[in-house]
Amino acid sequence: MESLTPNILNCLNQGIPFALATIITHKGSTPRTSGSKMLVLFDGQLYGTIGGGLVEAKIIEACQTMIPTPGCQIKEFILNQELSHGLDMVCGGNLTIWIETFGPKPSPELIQVFTAMAIQEKEGKKNLLISRIQGFSNSSFTTQKYLVLADGTTIGPNLLPKTLFDAIDNNLFSNTAPVIQNHNLEEFIIEPGQTNATLYIFGAGHVGLQLAKMAHLTDFRTIIVDDRAEFANEKRFKHAHTVHVAEQFPTAFDELIHKKLVIDKNCYIVILTRGHLHDQTVLEAALKTKAGYIGMIGSTKKRDQIYGNLRKKGISKKNLNRVYSPIGLDINSETPAEIAVSIIGQIIQIRAQTQ
């Protein structure tokens, strides 16, 4: 899911009024799930989507009606037969949409919060956006916002009760979708900051280049690693978040750690180096990480040879079973672009299964 934080920040800095529509909850068959967002300008210009079709058109209309008066409303949209026909699909679900409008003179504190959020997202760090509901009346209200960083630091006015803050600090709100939390007589909307999954591509050759393009289109934070500067450079990989030229593959992971790049379950590793020995070296190191996906290119013969070598070095069969090799979905791909499609397809499939 593409982050709208840069678009939000751009509108705030330029004083452009806009509305932000967020799916709070979804039930049944709906086009998009909780947490999906759409930014709407008064002239109808859009960033993001919450599903398209007639239901989105109705939400856009509601957003444009609300833009002149900054504030919030929570609205229910039922995908009945009329909307189902408009969506050209059989739907029978409900959407709860939080619409929040922002005026031409945002407060410095609000800009500070979204500036910090943009930085956190760019660095792949987790955060929580807290919206304290104020003046709730007939579904209309305003909010006061601040950001909670992973280390407990807050950006903006921290108005969260200590017990609720401690609960957040203990990761009790690790949802991927917004949560409305009641505390005594106060209500808070807690949104996990969007941290796109990180794709590590070891190998900056033809397939690596095409895979990086696919990863950008499908909202992965991409890190390229190779020991050849003529291949691994920002001019060639324009959309990569980081391009790292390793001194050598045996020390590549140590170099990444030194640069404070983390490999956890929200990370995907694809091994596409220029030779079997380098692939084995990278795979051995990758298996020591908590990566949610490890894939290695090559035939079953190559795979079995590398697995045999690693088994002799003490790596268990159970650990090797984590690896997807031959890599990618079986779509009879041949060209670098086709192979990249098969790989990104498999990664998207795995990502969907683990979210």
Percent of residues in β-strands? 25-35%
**What percent of residues adopt helix (DSSP H or I)?**
25-40%
H/E element order = HEEEHEHEHEEEHEEEHEEHEHEHHEH
CATH topology of the largest domain: Rossmann fold
Summary of the model, kept short:
Helices cover 34% and strands 27% of the residues.
Task: Report what the structure shows.
The protein is of the alpha/beta class. It has 3 domains: 5-102, no CATH class; 109-192, no CATH class; 198-354, 3-Layer(aba) Sandwich (Rossmann fold). The protein is 34% helix and 27% strand. The protein is built from 11 helices and 16 strands. The strands form 2 sheets. Strands 1, 2, 3, 4, 5, 6, 7, 8, 9 and 10 form a 10-stranded antiparallel beta sheet that branches. Strands 13-12-11-14-15-16 form a 6-stranded parallel beta sheet, with helices on both faces. α6 (206-217) packs across α11 (336-354). The longest helix has 19 residues, at 336-354. The chain is elongated. 35% of the residues are buried.
